[in-house]
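Supplementary Methods S3. Complex input for the magnesium ion-bound model.
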Amino acid sequence: MIKKAEGILSKIFGYHSFRPLQKEVIENIISKNDTLVIMPTGGGKSLTYQIPALIFNGITVVVSPLISLMKDQVEQLSELGVNALFLNSSLSQLDYQFNVEQVRNGNVKLLYVAPETLMLERTLELLEKLDVDCITIDEAHCISEWGHDFRPVYREIATLKPRFPDAVFMALTATATPQVQNDIIENLKFKKSNRFVASFNRDNLFLQVVEKTFPLKQTLNFLEKHKNQSGIIYCFSRKQVDELTAELDEHGYSVKPYHAGLSDNERMQNQEKFIKDDISIIVATVAFGMGINKPNVRFVIHYDLPKNIESYYQEIGRAGRDGLRADCLLLFGYGDINKINYFIDQKEGREKLVAKQHLDKLIRYAETYTCRRIPLLTYFGEEYYQENCGICDNCNRGVKELTDITVESQKFMSCVKRTGEIFGAMHIVDILLGSKNQKVLDKNHDKLSTYGIGKEHPREVWLSISHQLIVRGLLTKDFEFGGLQITDRGYAALKGEVEVKGKLDVETKFESKSITNLEYDKKLFGVLRSARKNIADKSGLPPYAIFPDKTLIEMATFFPTTEKDMKNIHGIGEAKYNKYGAKFILFISNYCQKFNIPVVSSNIINKRNVVGGIVKKLKYKIIGEEFKSGKSVDAILNEYNMKIDTLVEHLSKYSNLVEPINPVMLFNILECDKRTQKIVYEQFEKLGVELLRPVFDAMNETVSYIDLRILRLNYLFQNKN
Ligand code: ADP
Ligand code: MG
Ligand code: ZN
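Predicted complex, serialized as structure tokens:
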């Protein structure tokens, strides 16, 4: 059976392998076991009922809560040559009757229905006369009152089970909370053993948090690196949405607003323009996003702080559904926290407590110096132990980017000490900058020796230093009053016993990163993209319903000009080939002719493997050998355009798989002192060296992973000798 599923995957959908758990779920459905599927947004839930639907003889009914989602799915399936239709209140009477007839005649494999439509007696009677093999409940969190979109009618679907004894029931959602999951299982009377939960790690999303200083400028800098890409910018208020839209528009971006203050019509139009790539950016409040299936959203910016981690995860989840790299930027402003705290203070009792905890977790996420995926996934109850995800700002930050901030730290902390360790960061910074404000004068703080000794840096930098000192455990903050106190570690730094490293620049430079590791021809991609847009506009479809971006990227990499090559491209199954294959082959061969690119038929599958795998795998060997040959660290970093973290990672691999390496050349980048190093070696003895996470924890997260890696290299090298 699974062979059949694999055949459909490549023939109809044009995909080459299943995503995690898709195969298991499909097998379970084909065996007619009621199944609950929990996968993050973009995880590929739809395929898990669409493929069984094409294997079953009868019809599959899909319950979906939103008209836009049904329309989107039916359009995409029709493009793939699959007979799919929907029934909901948006259809004219004529179209509705037409669709009903199609269903009655047994011409339909997948029928999408609104829950209200399904529960109508006439719909049920229609379906009872057919052979219903599967009833799928998409967005199944609507069943639960604990979910974010409870819909009472969803709870009635369970009553249909006796009426369709031959149908397998399945429920799908991206909601991770166990409470909601259990609610669904109880309502539908599913066996717990038939629950499939995928990882919530979205490993194509680059997670980045920067301190919000000049948000407009920061946003413009970011957008500069994401020209012509689709993205969403979330703001807290309607006013902010309108202002930012106007600014971006003035700077030449194609952008529209979306919030509850606009008319229904205008909202719908703006959303449609975004989906059809008529505009690239939508600036929105959290009202935007439900029912958007656009797979090529390349970035999500949080211009203001999201409500909590759960909303944050949901909002960034709208980026990169197509599996290609997407960027998520959170502008984290301490002023925003004060604003939210103000609102929280208006609340009372439990509600206030919960809100405070939510905010606290969000702050911890933003302030973490370890991999961002750790706090994020821990929040959803998932264990995440990878040392370096490679796709968040912290894991990508090289030691080189940190500078010595010992002197600044000492200035700041001595000012904290001189004022009795009872004042907050704002006041300390006022003193350092030599401010003449009333509070400073009233307290006679203009007489202190630390008054005005910090004029070399602007306010933002000092505020940032104060946060870095807190995060690094040199200062603690009194939660109730905000007063800063110096810890033992802080005193050690004050006395010059330890060096402090950190960031002095609050400006962040955004890099423009390729969205795939394929080396594709950008110009050809542009040509194919506008061809796709033309076709899409003619048929009134969004461009992604014609081809996903990945299809165009592969075409611009492999230059397929034969049927066989074309069908090996991602997303090209039979129907797509028949519809568009010849056209795109022509575009490609014309392009090749124009630029004198030799056209050779090639085995794309092999090429894909080379590009994706082998070349990358051998890198650690090359780097390991260079390092062993005595080449300087800087020379290697320059030659391979590599960050120090990556270098150390390659060396770790080399040391593991080939032979231990002497890392003495790396000792000068170690941040921790000799005494700490000794303790780390003791922890290696005790806990082993396979995983660094336990050692990291045992050291109270005070030693960075890069330090731990270097020390581990040395430990292995010494043990060998
Ligand atoms: P979900 O409903 O879980 O949010 P979708 O079912 O909409 O996710 O799938 C997200 C995207 O991933 C879609 O564009 C889909 O075509 C694509 N996709 C799903 N499964 C695969 C696969 N096995 N290989 C390649 N692309 C896939
Ligand atoms: Mg879905
Ligand atoms: Zn990371």
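The first strand starts at residue 35 and ends at 38. The two ends are 55 Å apart (CA to CA).
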